[in-house]
Amino acid sequence: MIKRFLLPFLYYKFLLSQLILREIKARYKQSIMGYAWIIFSPLIQLLIYSFVFSIIFRFPTGDIPYSIFLLAGLLPWIYFQTTLSTTALVLVDNSNLIKKVYFPREVLPYSVILAKAVDLFFAALVLVAFMIFYQIPFHLTVLLLIPLFLIQVALMTGISFFISTANLFYRDIQYVVNLFLFMWMFLTPVVYPLSLVPDKYIWLYKLNPMVGIIEGYRSALFNFSFDSGTILWSALISFLIFIVGFIFFKKSEKIFADIV
Amino acid sequence: MDNKNVSIQFKNCTKKFYLQEDKTFKEFLPNLILGKSWAKELIALNDISFEIKQGETVGIVGKNGAGKSTLLRLIAGVTSPTKGEVRVEGKVAPLIELGAGFHHELSGYENIFLNAAILGMHKKEIELVLDKIIEFSELEDFIHIPVKRYSSGMYMRLAFAIAVHVDAPILLIDEVLAVGDAAFQKKCLDRLKEFKKQGDKIIIFISHSEQSVKNFCERVILLDHGKMLDEGSPAEVFEKYHHILTQKT
Description:
With 260 residues, chain A is mainly α.
């Protein structure tokens, strides 16, 4: 199983890198702003949310300015959301390849997840610029962003395995996914702080694996105390979804060409 | 067991498809409750057995819907048989519906790498034949513009140029020789004959053109409604093929 898992990264690594390049290069061709949209689009969202939630609603975010508090959660959330809404379509969009040529099919969702990670990296430069501008010190805890990021990638990959396959059977899935993501965002402390969630419901709220991940990012960036129990839960759920998703995907893969 | 040789083996292979008739949930749900079958069964290939050895060039003929493309898909490994066994030893390069992996916004040059990677080549292998691919496609002056600006002939030329430079021991060719003008068609055929001369490749050839099958293949398999009706020399098999064509039209 481990050997099967590694195959796309060893034997098929050139194919994977070509598909990532296709994803990145093709998206902004024939557009004036091109790759600048990667930075521009979260900035616009930042402006909108900042206006609504720091001027109108005035969420309490402590010593951290709202814009930075928001970016720390919004950027990984945008990564999560754009990746999942794209991977829902990835098998359907590449159906002509699936019908003609053999390669491990998981290469397709992987290429999306990795291409969007490149976007996240560039968008994160905005956050760094903001932190420097507001003179927020960087702590050694930023290194913990890496394991948190890996948990998020495991979760996204696992979910991608299910939704990309399901969408091959019924195209309704892509719409369900987008609605679900919209709801999911408001069940995750992206635009508001966790402290606003009523104590009564907090245990239920924390079952959402994205809570531990997003809160973890903030703890790592701003040197808040870590809620290790919640993060551990997120990690556990994420890797479980990933493993079950992988097995499910590899089992279904054989009939992809027959049903697209 | 002889694993060193390149070979294709079909043992009592059957492939069924389930044609889904009820596309929407509204129709699907009542049928499920009433216990009606939710799909219509279609037998694309019925109990097929044959063996192809290294160095052979085999033509596959039959009417539309006879199961030719399903056979190629089984060899390419994109689908698996419902019953029976398919064994393929060696890397397969499917020259079916060329350009399936092209991205319209990318340049011809970028698409060479992308498409060759999809066909299973590695970076170094591609770099070795890159100049040959561009030369073969005769697109030297247009290689850096997006393929969406190509004419359909240019598009196919590039796709074919990539496909024939894939270093795979098994080649699947599905009606692709109708590419470009007469001169380019001849060039493609010459290239395939070159492969044939090498003597170590398996070439599977699907065509409705009797002339090119007779020219190119020493063995022909005749399919009809998913069954293998005949197998043998082109002259023999085509006689039978004409017979069934006149019998029921």
